[in-house]
Amino acid sequence: MPILYSSEKKLFTLHTAHTTYQFQIDPYGVPLHLYYGTRCEGEMDYLLRYADRGFSGNPYAAGDDRTYSYDTLPQEYPVWGSGDYRSTLLSLRDEGGTLGCAPRYRSHEIRPGKYALSGLPAVYAAEEEAESLSLELVDERLGLSLTLLYGVLPECDIITRSVIVKNRGTQTFRLGRLQSACLDFVGGDFDLITFPGRYALERQADRRPLGRGTLSVGSRRGYSSHQYNPLVFLCDREATESTGRCWAMQLVWSGGFLCEAERDQLSQTRLALGMDEVQMDYPLAPGESITAPEVILSYSASGLEKLSHHLHRCLNRHVRRGKYRDARTPILLNSWEASYFDFTGESLLALAKKAKDLGVEMLVMDDGWFGARRDDKSSLGDWTVNEKKLGMPLKELAARVNTLGLAFGIWMEPEMISEDSELFRAHSDWALTIPGQAPVRSRSQLVLDFSRAEVREHVFASICAVLDSANIEYLKWDLNRSISDVYSHAAPCQGRVLYQNMLGVYEMLEKLCARYPDLLIEGCSGGGGRFDAGMLYYCPQIWCSDNTDAIDRLVIQHGSSFGYPAAAVGAHVSICPNHQTGRTVPLSTRGIVAAAGTFGYELDPAQLTKAECGEVRRQIRAYCEDAPLVRGGLYYRLSDPAKDAWCAWSFVSEDGSSALLGAVLREKHANAPAQYLRLRGLVPGARYRARETGKIYPADALTDAGLPLPLDCAEYGGFTLHLERE
Ligand code: GLA
Fold first, then answer.
1. d(Cα 278, Cα 138) in Å, to the nearest integer?
2. Which residue's alpha carbon is nearest to atom 2 within ligand 1?
3. Structural class in CATH, domain 646-725
4. Which of 276, 478, 532, 546 is catalytic?
5. Which of 43, 136, 155, 612 is catalytic?
6. Is domain 323-637 in CATH 3.30.70.1290, yes or no?
7. 52 an active-site residue?
8. Would you say 557 and 571 are in contact if contact means Cβ atoms under 8 Å apart?
9. pLDDT-based confidence at residue 654 (cuts at 50, 70, 90)
10. pLDDT single digits (tens) 415-438
11. Ligand 1 center to residue 367 CA distance, Å?
12. CATH among 2.60.120.1440, 3.40.50.300, 2.60.40.10, 2.70.98.60 for 71-318
């Protein structure tokens, strides 16, 4: 049984294969966090220390005991109003504006399987793969109930958390903050790893020591964002890829978020994660409830890569869904960088023909096929096929692409509306705009109000009309601006709109997945601006970045790999000089980098030389062969792109029988010293044969001394190496 309850000490113990999480209901009904670390049996309440800290108040029920304070004790769900002045998870005002609540333990339930969250994406598991705990806390004065949810997936070393707030009272509350979970640490000197970035340079791993005070990252943009990612690692200062204690928190949510890491007056650390609070002012009427998005937690006693493996496995097996959770996705050629808005049906067919000849399996028609869209200034919302531009109906185009032997896919941006569109002219109130205030424009577009059912119904019907009109097997679901002007022209109360808007997006994606179970939906947001576990529940892959420059991609894909599996990372080979950076990188290197993701092309094959066409054919054959290892193997980061000249990684099969190594030289210097790449994940004592050279290596030497890297490699050159266990 992964979840144990000892009634004598009111102790809850959650076991996974290698970790244990423990908390206890204290004498006053508050759940105190005790331990999250290496699996062990026993009671960890011995870790709690009590002292009068002065100005750290005491619960009334503790009488004269000045040593008992929620300002210093580690907790499971700290709330504002309990005398805890650190970052708390819930702040709630009653009708009169009074801030504070005091929820206390009422009951709990343990049941097999993994709980689900109504309207929200969440980790799923078969009944025998997981166990769930729900813990009910009640504030009698307010009639408030908090249900803390815990899911335990023992084989993945994953614990999930969420919380449902319900108003059982008679007055409306206002929620100003509803965080999903925190991890409290009574000791430790930690580094925080976050994944900041910007458009076209997303998710660069950023590691900083935690000092006194609060370090926070988040998105106030209404989507998870390019700028920060809802994923955070906390680790020992000396932790490395393969040593040291580390913890992960990953939010299954695609809206704005907030992550706070606070080192308090006693050098204790609290790591909290949940929804953005700046745009939160949520009224909860009597009888209503709200569910906080889920947080995935994991712990590793042996470094960062193990933590990534836990998250990858969890996302691959318990978050991503549908046919393409396991099956390799088709090798696609996307028209965007090939022709941007400038295409016709015939020009796309010409692309398809050449693509087929190279071994490509699908053609994707990107932006520009609908309404009167000639550039990015118009027509979002008008999802009617521009047959004049295409020169043929969509059905015919798809059929002719199919006849050439390729599948066919399209681009859409369903959450947006252009002011220059039929839809806006008919329903300007469907856009989020504040009456009397000029809205913020971004990419010349406004945001549709997905909190409104009639808007969702209209958009859903428009999408279905397109998908039903032709044989469309892929949909790129894009979002190209941050949300502002959060005002719904239909909502009685604006404080809920952003949350309801996100739930509206999820509802539509869920309906699409149900109606088109074989449709491959690739998430996208100006590249990788909405790259999160929430979207992965609906879209098994997400376009990782609009930056297709292989050298920049090394950094982006390295950062993404901390929390996201390669099967989720949309990656294409594009033309050189690169459209984003102007850099020229050998085609072979571009292939090596894209092959560490979903692999595809984003170019016009007519621009390739004969020799390059040969190289592309070879790349596609190689990727198809390597795909099981790339999509299902364990991923090892073998370098740190922030400081190493070589950037290297490997995929190793779970049984260690084969490995695929990728390496690219980012920076070349004359007469450089020899460098050795120390591999990991190989079976100790085994011998491995390199497929490319026939050389045989002892695994332990590859691990301890390393593999010599070529001295004659030119800048931006690279290689792959397949190692097979003898
Ligand atoms: C976004 C996407 C691109 C492309 C364009 C089309 O920027 O990330 O890949 O689809 O939109 O407008």
1. 26
2. 526
3. mainly beta
4. 532
5. 612
6. no
7. no
8. yes
9. very high
10. 999 999 999 999 999 999 999 999
11. 7
12. 2.70.98.60
